[in-house]
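I hope you will forgive my troubling you with a question about protein structure. The matter concerns a single protein, recorded as an amino acid sequence and a row of C-alpha cells. Please examine both parts with care and let me know of anything in them that strikes you as inconsistent. Here, with my thanks, is the record as I have it:
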Amino acid sequence: MRSGKTNYAFLMLLVLLGAGLFFAYKSGMLSAVQQKVPVPSETPVSNVMGKSATLLLNAYEIEGSSKVKKTDVNVSVWKDGVELENYATFDISDTISSGLAVGDKITVVEIDGSYYGNPVTKTIGSESDVMEYDVSAMASESNMQVTVYDDTGTTELNAASDSDLADYNITLGAGEEKVVYAKIYNGDSDSLIRIKAIAVGAGNDIDEVTVEDPNWVKVAIPKHIEDTTLTINGTSTSFDYDAVYVYKPGTTETIDLHEYESFKLKLKIKADASNDPAFTTTVSNMDIAFFEFKDADWYYTKSGSYAFGIADDSDSEADVGIDETDNSPLGKEMGAIIQAI
C-alpha cells in the first residue's frame, strides 16, 4: 500500500511541476530567465575608436558583364580636406598604412586618368579596413561615331562632295537657318563616355552654330579650345570654335553613354544674312559649320583640391578626360564638319 501512495505522490509532484513551468512560460518568466544567458558579440567599434588603422583599397571596373579587379587605377585620398595620398603616385590596391584612425572619414576619387570614378566617402570601421572602389573604363575617341541628321532627326545628311574636306554637305541660302541633329554613339565595348559639352564653330558665309536645348548652356570657352584652329586636309586654317555649350553647368550631371548607347542633340546652322554659302575646294574659303563633343572628369586643382569639369583650372585650362582631337573634328568620331554647297 505504501508503494501505491508513493507513486501517487510522485505523479502529483510531476503535475504540479508541469503546471508551474506552464505558468512561468505564459507569464514570460521563463523567457526572462533565458534572456539573462550571455551570448557572444562582436567588439563594438567604440572600443577601438581613435586607434591607428590601415586601409586596403581595391578597385573594380564595372562596365563589363562582371566586376573585374584593377591595379592600374590612380586615385587621390583625402581626410578632412587634406590629401593623404596623391593621385600621381598612389596606385589603388595599395594599403594606406599611416595617417588613419578608426572613425576617420576619408574620400577617394579617381583623377583624370583612363577610368571614370566619382568621389566616394567611407568611415574607417576597424583597425584593418578594406574599401572597394568602382570605376568605369574610359571609351577611346577612335571608337566613337558621330552621325548628323536633317531636321527630321532620322534622315542622315548627304555625304560630303570631298571627304578630305568635310563629312557632310548642306544647302543654305543667304539668311537661311536649318536644324540638324548630331548623334554620338559609343562603339567601344565595356566602356563609358561622360558627355558634358559641345564646342561649335562656323566659317565664312556660315555665321553661327547654336545648340537648341535648354539644358545646354553657353559658357566661357576654355583656353585650350579657344587657342585651337582647325587643320583640314593637312592645311592649317583660321577657323576656330565660336562657342561652348555645357550640359547643366555647375553640376556633375553628364550624358552617360555605356557601350553601344547613343545620344542626339539638336543644333541650328545659320547662314550669312547677305551672301549665299557656296561650295569650294579652297580650304580657306570653305563655308562650314563644325562641332565636337567633349567629356568631363575629375581633376586636381591648383589650390590643392579636386573639381569636376571639361577643363582644369591651370593657366592653360587644359583638357581632362578623353583627349579629344580638337583641331580636327573631321572623320565623325567626336565631331564633324558640314560644308555648304
